[in-house]
Amino acid sequence: xxxxxxxxxxxxxxxxxxxxxxxxxxxxxxxxxxxxxxxxxxxxxxxxxxxxxxxxxxxxxxxxxxxxxxxxxxxxxxxxxxxxxxxxxxxxxxxxxxxxxxxxxxxxxxxxxxxxxxxxxxxxxxxxxxxxxxxxxxxxxxxxxxxxxxxxxxxxxxxxxxxxxxxxxxxxxxxxxxxxxxxxxxxxxxxxxxxxxxxxxxxxxxxxxxxxxxxxx
Amino acid sequence: xxxxxxxxxxxxxxxxxxxxxxxxxxxxxxxxxxxxxxxxxxxxxxxxxxxxxxxxxxxxxxxxxxxxxxxxxxxxxxxxxxxxxxxxxxxxxxxxxxxxxxxxxxxxxxxxxxxxxxxxxxxxxxxxxxxxxxxxxxxxxxxxxxxxxxxxxxxxxxxxxxxxxxxxxxxxxxxxxxxxxxxxxxxxxxxxxxxxxxxxxxxxxxxxxxxxxxxxx
Lengths: 217, 217
Description:
The structure is a homodimer.
Chain A: H1 31-52, H2 59-66, H3 72-77, H4 80-87, H5 94-102, H6 109-122, H7 124-137, H8 142-161, H9 168-188, H10 199-215
């Protein structure tokens, strides 16, 4: 991690920001400055991701919009994924999580995904962020577009990369419907008897559905 | 349908209200009165359903809250289901739809439900109401509680009544997760390739999941 190019702000990690933020060494600048830079970048990032989507937004455009040196964006957020996760207030890097789950191959992938998702949502911080995403998703406007873009270009794309099939994106999208529905029913709507089901029971029911969708057929 | 007990308002149907409303004969009262009564009943119904849930809300309590004769509630809304559907601005009676789908037995029920749901949501009026429900569902507070109550006590209960099994409610709730997820992905988030899938394709993928959940095992 290089030193910050201008203003040398304290690493974002020290301010309790998202774990996706880079934590290199650097001399702290004045407190007001440090807060402004990170906040300005995030504010512009949310605007641009909303208006142009994940693919159409460059770190340079975000830096230009925030009036900061382009190198400050990776300094604070690592890369565009990290910036996106921070803009969505996601405390985890979804791509890394998905890669971990698929690292053990397709055998049993359905149950592993169901268990990972349940565990993540049951974590207070992650769960709150995911419910925030779903709130944004049901609005109309930029927030909805950011979430759609995130699911299409980060979540579904990450799943699809691990599926060697022409209909990989369709399989991944079908799996996403079951994941979103499970999250909605158990954690957002909090419908019984979904809430009182054990994680093992939930995984035993939802896992085979995800397995079928991801394997295709 | 008896004549309205007081004020003899014009049947609600003539005012373009929900199809669940009763449409018996009756002499019209002054326009301002008619609007107030129906609107007052709905306003109080939303409050009470939110605070006490579907089961804890009686038509009498709603009438008392609105300061109208108790017979005016069934006059405008038929029964408590109709009142609830109107409070949720649902243009269909979900119980009737569910009964229709199950009338042909459990064989092929998964595909029939998937097709019925897709068709309903693709109807502009019904779709808008369903998306409104999902918006309420992701909020915190009375609106969330009304939707949860509706799904637990109307939707899941209606499904479960048709499933002769000790775990009927669990099966129904699992099916609900897939239905909600499909609706969220295709119609609320509008994620590709879910949106461009034909209804037949969608039914072919989602149907077997619903079938497995509802049959159990």
